[in-house]
Design brief:
Layout: H1 2-20, E1 28-40, E2 45-57, E3 62-79, E4 84-103, E5 110-132, E6 143-165, E7 170-181, E8 185-197
Antiparallel strand pairs: 1-2, 1-8, 2-3, 3-4, 4-5, 5-6, 6-7, 7-8
C-alpha cells in the first residue's frame, strides 16, 4: 500500500511540475493535407495533395514555409456523334510554393497568418489534338494526333491561414487564398492541413 501511495505521489508531483512549466512555442512544423485549387476544374484539375515544412521565428510572430504539391487528372475523349474513343487526356501538375507569413494573433492555441510568396509549377500534359480522317467513316482506321507538352511556370500566391494547436505538438489549419501562374492565370484556393509541431 505504501508503494502505491508513493507511486501516485510521484506521479502527481510530476504532473504538477509539467502543468506549471512555461510554454515553449514550437519552432518547426510538418504538414500534410489537400486543397481545392481551381486551376482547370472543367478538366478535372481541382484537387491538390500537398506536404509542407514551416519554420516559426520571433516567437511565432513570423514564419517561412515550403510546400510541395501534386495534381493529376485523366479523362477519356470521345468524338460525338461518332462515339469513337481517341484515348485519355492526361494533365499533371507539380507545385512548389514558398511563403513568408506574419501572425496577427499571439496565442498559445490560435494563429492567424497572412502570407505571400513565389510559386514554381511543372505542367505535363498529353492531350488529344485532332483525328484524321474526320468525320470518321465506318470501318476506317483513324489516326489521332496528340500534343505532349512540359513547362515550368513562375508565379505567385497569397493566402490567409487559421491554425489551431490541439496540443504542444499537433495542429490543424484552414487556409484560403489565390494563385496567379503561367497559362493557368488566376486560381482560387481553399485548403486543410494537419501538422506535427516540434
Amino acid at each position: 500500500m505504501k508503494h502505491i501511495f508513493l507511486l501516485f505521489s510521484c506521479l502527481a508531483l510530476a504532473l504538477a511540475g509539467y502543468a506549471q512549466a512555461p510554454y515553449v512555442p514550437a519552432k518547426n512544423a510538418v504538414q500534410i493535407g489537400s486543397d481545392y485549387l481551381g486551376v482547370d476544374p472543367a478538366n478535372g484539375l481541382k484537387y491538390r495533395f500537398a506536404f509542407g515544412y514551416q519554420r516559426y521565428m520571433a516567437r511565432d510572430r513570423s514564419s517561412l514555409s515550403l510546400s510541395v504539391g501534386f495534381m493529376s487528372s485523366q479523362r477519356t475523349t470521345v468524338l460525338v456523334p461518332d462515339f469513337v474513343s481517341v484515348g485519355k487526356n492526361t494533365r499533371r501538375r507539380i507545385t512548389i510554393d514558398m511563403t513568408a507569413s506574419y501572425n496577427l494573433l499571439h496565442s498559445v492555441h490560435h494563429a492567424l497568418r497572412v502570407g505571400l510568396g513565389p510559386s514554381l509549377w511543372n505542367s505535363n500534359d498529353d492531350l488529344f489534338l485532332k483525328v484524321e480522317p474526320y468525320p470518321v467513316p465506318s470501318g476506317t482506321p483513324i489516326y489521332a494526333q496528340r500534343l505532349q507538352t512540359e513547362n515550368w511556370d513562375i508565379g505567385g500566391h497569397g493566402k490567409i491561414e487559421y491554425t489551431y494547436a490541439l496540443s504542444l505538438n499537433t495542429q490543424v489549419s484552414l487556409h484560403s487564398g489565390a494563385v496567379i501562374i503561367g497559362p493557368s492565370g488566376f486560381a482560387p484556393m481553399f485548403g486543410l492541413r494537419a501538422g506535427y509541431r516540434f
